[in-house]
Specification:
Layout lengths: L1 H4 L5 E3 L3 E4 L11 E4 L6 E2 L6 E4 L3 H5 L33
Parallel strand pairs: 1-5
Antiparallel strand pairs: 2-3, 4-5
């Protein structure tokens, strides 16, 4: 399962904190808040989805390698960005 989690591309956000509830309503997990202010990839401790702040993108792209892909690769294990949203907008904060 860890290998599949590390196939998930980074979700780039503009906010300092991200709310993650695993998506899927009652099939998700408890809502947690993730601070993405640091120039690093931060992941949800429940579902493993990676997040990073858009303003840190250039620094993260300059690294020789990262534990998560920075862009979607088309791998069949990728969770669509809209999966985390019930508003119809990708990663819309609820």
């Amino acid at each position: 399962a860890i290998e599949l989690i590390h196939k998930q591309p980074v979700r780039w956000v503009k906010e300092r904190t991200v709310k993650c509830d695993g998506g899927g309503g009652p099939l998700g997990h408890p809502r947690i808040f993730i601070n993405v202010d640091r120039p690093q990839i931060c992941w949800c401790t429940y579902c493993g989805l990676p997040y990073a702040k858009e303003s840190n993108r250039k620094m993260l792209e300059s690294l020789p390698s990262t534990s998560y892909p920075l862009e979607p690769t088309g791998h069949e294990a990728e969770v669509p960005k809209g999966y985390q949203s019930n508003t119809g907008k990708p990663l819309e904060q609820r």
